[in-house]
Specification:
The protein is mostly beta strands and 124 residues long. It has no helices and eleven strands. The strands form two sheets. Strands 2, 4, 5, 6, 9, 10 and 11 form a seven-stranded mixed β-sheet that branches. The chain has a four-stranded antiparallel β-sheet with strand order 1-3-8-7, with no helix packed on it. The radius of gyration is 13 Å and the shape is globular.
Length: 124
């Protein structure tokens, strides 16, 4: 059974940094895409960044140049380094895993598994 568990959220002031982690277990697929999504009340879940098995990355325009997605060599841990945080970055960050290659524009429907999320709050 595939499980995803996020950690690393917290409260920071604007301009600060946080590093999120997502520990993945129970999957052995050679082809996959992993991503971070952001959920805020009243809004559709937004894909922030994704990375595939070859290390290719995709970022939302709103976080380009500030966030970095990466994964451990053993594929078990997904990271999101968030720098120069802004109040609009606040939300619940969820880790997601797909059996398919990453696909810009496919949205949350591409993903088969989800973590519970970790809260990020950025104050001005």
């Amino acid at each position: 059974q595939v499980q995803l568990m996020e950690s690393g959220g917290g409260s920071v002031q604007a301009g600060g940094s946080l590093r999120l982690s997502c520990v993945a277990s129970g999957y052995t697929y050679s082809r996959y895409c992993m991503a971070w999504f952001r959920q805020t009340p009243g809004k559709e879940r937004e894909e922030v960044a994704s990375i595939d098995g070859d290390g290719a990355t995709i970022y939302a325009d709103s976080v380009k140049g500030r966030f970095i997605i990466s994964k451990s060599n053993d594929r078990d841990t997904l990271y999101l380094q968030m720098n120069n945080l802004k109040p609009e970055d606040s939300g619940t960050y969820l880790c997601a895993l797909s059996h398919k290659y990453c696909d810009t524009g496919a949205g949350q429907g591409l993903y088969n598994y989800w973590g519970q999320g970790t809260q990020v709050t950025v104050s001005s």
